[in-house]
What does this fold into?
Amino acid sequence: MGSWKYEDKERDIVISSRIRLARNIKGMPFPILLPEHKARLLVDLIFNCLEKDESLGTEFTKIEVGRVGNNERRVLVEKHLTSPELGSNKCAAVFINKNEDISIMANEEDHVRIQCIQEGFQLHKTYEMANAVDDVLEKCVDFAYHEKYGYLTACPTNVGTGMRASVMLHLPSLTLNNQINTMIVTLAKFGLTIRGIYGEGTQALGDLYQISNQNTLGMTERELIENLHDVAREIIKKEREHRYEILNTNRIYLEDKIYRAFGVLSNARSINAEESMKLLSLVRLGSDLELIDQDIGTINDLMVNIQPGILSGIYGGDLTEIDRDRIRAEHIRKFLKSE
Amino acid sequence: MGSWKYEDKERDIVISSRIRLARNIKGMPFPILLPEHKARLLVDLIFNCLEKDESLGTEFTKIEVGRVGNNERRVLVEKHLTSPELGSNKCAAVFINKNEDISIMANEEDHVRIQCIQEGFQLHKTYEMANAVDDVLEKCVDFAYHEKYGYLTACPTNVGTGMRASVMLHLPSLTLNNQINTMIVTLAKFGLTIRGIYGEGTQALGDLYQISNQNTLGMTERELIENLHDVAREIIKKEREHRYEILNTNRIYLEDKIYRAFGVLSNARSINAEESMKLLSLVRLGSDLELIDQDIGTINDLMVNIQPGILSGIYGGDLTEIDRDRIRAEHIRKFLKSE
It folds into this structure.
C-alpha cells in the first residue's frame, strides 16, 4: 500500500484513472444472442439492485440509450460514461450516479459493464470503487465465473478479471519529441496498450493518451493495476524529463508555441474541436511549466466541454457545424484568462 | 487640378506615393563606364549643389554607400532611400534630407536619381517635390536631353521623362479573392506594372503592391501621373468592393482570420518578417473595416520597422536571425494595443 498515498500528486500529467469491469449473468446468453424481453428484464434487474442499495451512498439515473436524442448519446460518449458501441444495441441502458464517476452499462458487449473514473492518478482508489459496485450487483445476480478462467465475457480478450484499468495521460513533450511510437512497442512488452481518448482506433486529440492493460488473464486485478501503475509512473517521469529538456535547450521555441496557441485560442472567432485540443494541450503544458498563467482545471474542463456534443448540449441542442465552431471559439475566449 | 485635393483621402489603401527621376550629365559617360575620379567628382558636384541651395528648405546628409556597414546599407534599401543595386557600385552615394522624403542617388545606373516619397495618395504633390529638386540640380549641371527623345538614360526603358511614378497599395481583399493575376494583365494594357514592395522581382509581402508606369516615353510627366492616378483610383475602388463583399458574405471567416492574426502577433515569442507582414496585413484590414481597434499608423510603422535591417538598427546593430526573430516578436507585442 506504500505507494498509494502518493498517487494523487501527478495531476500535471495524469488527467484521470479508470477501471472497467465486464460481467455477465450466469445462464443467460450474451447480449448479442439475448432476446429483447430478457434484455429488458436485465435492465430492470440492475436498476432495482442499484435502487435498493445504500452502501454506495449515491443515487443512479437510468438512461435508455435508444430513447434519447443523437446529441445526448454523443454527450454520454464524450463524457466517457458510455462506449461508442452502446448506442447501437437494442435495450442498451446506462446507470449513472450524480458525480458521474460511476456508470454501469447494461446490454453492451457484455451484460454488465461497471465503469469508475477519478481525476488524477488514483488507480487503486478507482478500483476500490468499481469493486464496491461489483459487490452490490453480486448481491442481486450471479455472475458467470469459471474457477480456472475467471469471469466469462463475450469477447475472449476480457476473460479472467474482466477488468480494464486505464490512465489518461497528457504527453505533449513526448509527442513533440516523437517518442510515442517507441512507447507503443515498449508498452506491449508489459502487456499494456496506448490509445486515443475515445478508445480503440481513435486519434490522440490534444496529446491525451489512454494507457491500459491488454491482458485480463493470468494476473490478479491488483497485479494488473500495480503493473499499469508502475509503467505509468515511468512514462510520467519520461514526459517530465522531456519537458525540462525542451525547456532548457529550446525555451524560446517552446514559449513561442505555447503563447501562439494561447493567442489563437483567445482570439479565434471560429475553431473546430481538433484544433482546440491541439492548442489547449500546449497551453496546458505551458501552465504546468509555469510559462503561462492559466488554470489547469479550467484547461481540463475546456478539453471536455469543447467536444461537439457536450458543447451543443451547453448551448441548447443540435447546432450546425458552423455555429458550433463559432460558439466553441466564444466559449474558449470566455474561460481563458487574458494574459 | 480638380481631383488633386482629394488625393489624401485614401490612406486606408494607399500607403505611399513615389516619384523617381533618372538624370545624366551631358558629355559624361554613364556610370558603368565612368572612371572612378570622375564618379567622385560627380558626387561632390551634386553635394555642393544641394549644400548651397536654399529653395528646398531642407539639409541633406551625404552617405557614401560603399563606406557604411552591411546593416546600414540594408536599412537604406528597406526604407526605400536607395535601390538594392546602389550598394554594388563604386563611388555610389546617396543624399538624404531630414524627413527622409527626398533622396538623391549618385552613380546608380544613371548619374543621378531623384526620389521623393509621401504618405498616402499624393502623386501630384510628390511630383512637384521631385520637380523642385530637379530644378535645383539643373542650376549646377547640364542634364543630357534630346529634343525628340527627352532625357537620356543608361537603360532605354527610362528614356523620355526618366520618370517612374508609383503608389504602394495595400490590397488584402483582392489578394484573398485571387484578383492580383487578373490585375497584372489589365494594368499592362494601361502601360502600368505591379511589383512587390522592394521593386522588380520581389514578393508582395503583407499584401503590399507597388503600381508604377512601365513607359517613360510618348507622354508627358503629367499625363503619366494622371494615368497612374486614374487606374490606382479604380483599383482602390475594387479593393474596397471586395472588402465589403467578404464582410457581407463571410464576416465570421474574415473576423476569425483577423483576430487569429492579432492573437499570434500579440503572443508570439519569435516571428520572421514574412509572417509578420502577412499577419500585420490582416490586422490592418481589420482596422480599416473597424473590426478591430488597432491604429493604422502603428501598423504602418510596424510594417517598416520589423524589416530585418531596420529592426537590427533599432536594437543595436548586427543580430543573428534567431535573436532578430525574438526581438521582432517583442517589438510587435510592445506596439500592438491589447484587445
The interface with chain B takes residues 252-253, 255-256, 259-260, 262-270, 322, 326, 329, 338-339 of chain A (CB under 8 Å).
